[in-house]
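WARN retry 2 of 3 for item q-0093 after timeout on previous attempt; input resubmitted unchanged.
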Amino acid sequence: MITFIKRLIFGTNPNDFNAQFTKCESKMEERFLLAAWPVLRQYGRVVTQHPLGSYRLDVALPERKICIEVDGRDYHIKPEQVDNDKRRDRVLMRSGWITIRYPGREIYADADACAREVEAIILRKG
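OK item q-0093 returned
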C-alpha cells in the first residue's frame, strides 16, 4: 500500500524523487521539494542542484528554463549575497531562464502555496 501511495504522489519511478531529494542541501529545500514534486513532475524533468555554468540551481526544470531558489535567512540576508543573487538572476534571465525565489519563511509557512504559485507561473509561461 505504501509503495502504491509513493508511486501515486512521486511518479512511477520513486527513485527519481529519491535521487533528487538526497541532493537537497537544506531542510527548506527538502520541504519545498516534498510539496512541489507532485506538481512539478507534470511539467518535465525536475533536477535539484542543477549545474548551469558556474552556478548551481536549487531546483530546476531545465527544459522549461525555470529555476526555483530557496533562500535561507542566515545566508541570503547579507548585503553581498543579496547583490550576488540579483546579479545571478540577471545572468540567468539573459539566458532565457525565469528565477523564482522563496525565502525560507514562506516555505515553512506554506510550501504547498509556493508549489501552486510555481505551477501558475509555468502555465502562464506556456
